[in-house]
Write a structure and sequence with these properties.
Blueprint: E1 2-5, H1 8-11, H2 18-25, H3 30-38, E2 42-44, E3 47-48, E4 61-64, E5 102-106, E6 110-115, H4 132-138, E7 143-144, E8 150-151, E9 163-169, H5 172-184, E10 188-195, E11 203-211, E12 219-222, E13 235-246, E14 253-259, H6 266-273, E15 301-309, E16 316-320, H7 325-334, H8 346-349, H9 352-358
Parallel strand pairs: 9-15
Antiparallel strand pairs: 1-4, 2-3, 2-4, 5-6, 6-9, 7-8, 10-14, 10-15, 11-12, 11-13, 13-14, 15-16
Amino acid sequence: MQKFIISEIDLNNDKLRLDSFLSVKLRSSKNQIQSLIKNKKVYFNGTLCTKNGILLKAKDCIELDIYEDSHIQGLDTKSQLIESANKPQLPFNPQDKSFDIAILYQDEDILIINKPPHLVVHQAPSLKEATLTDWLKANAHILHTLSGEERYGIIHRLDRQTSGALAIAKSRLAYTLLPQELKSREMGRYYLAVIDMPLKSNQQVHCFMGRNPHNRLKMSKIHIKENAPIPKGIRDSKSSFIKLATADNGRCELIAAKLHTGRTHQIRTHLETLSRHILGDTLYGYKSHAQTYHYQNRILLHSYILYLKHPKSGENCTFKAPILRDMLEFLQTHFTKDLPNDCQNIMDLLEVNRIIRAFEHFS
């Protein structure tokens, strides 16, 4: 809940409307403020607000019920506050062609979703199950190119078992600009993961990556001699990892990860170089045993925060993808003791700006 008390300075001897005041304070459009009012998120002097144009006076109190429900918080003071749908997400069944996906935000240019685990992003000839592309097509999220080709606006991806925030381009402008933002790192993500052994300290991994020569399903760190030519298919990669909390058993750890580059299986590969593995990630060496809770349902990796520059307005936008039920229940069950003094539970530790600030000393 956010709270504002109107002062004489706010009024400045002028008539001030409630929607105009909130538009300035939240750096949002009046349409977005009106949407908050329509969706019963605004209280005026303790009563649910139903009008946009209320004239304010000194000591009036405005409260916003958006701290937990908006799922979106500012990356910095210039970030746009955007309302998202507070929609429960059902477990995904790969065989169900009529599945639904939680939409965090959408406008005429972009669509931000909370991808469930076990959902494949792209179609493939050998794939018999439903994909994200199927869902986009079924919900008429089709982008037509100038030549008339159908595209689905997918500009980046998440692995099948990874959940969380994913951006879709809905306009040609977004389809052109968002990939450029990925390359320039104006667009990126912060992840949460549970690993099978605590890190000794916060870490940064910077290495070359390529296809594992012994297992083509995996990626691996590749050693290249100084001044040697870089072989085809080998790319530079960089990730930062922050320790968040140790599980009650003292063995597993919740960490946050930030990608400075975006390579296939980058987080999983970089953790393997540190002799750490995400719970459930048997491909990269995770082995279930009593001390890691026998977790086999899926990889406990979640794209938690996505930030980008809006392709049309140019505003910095930050989106939080709520942790899905399976991972949330795991965290609430097994992470109850090793928390900072200012955190009553694991969710207090995962406040968006707290996560972002933790990476400030990494370049």
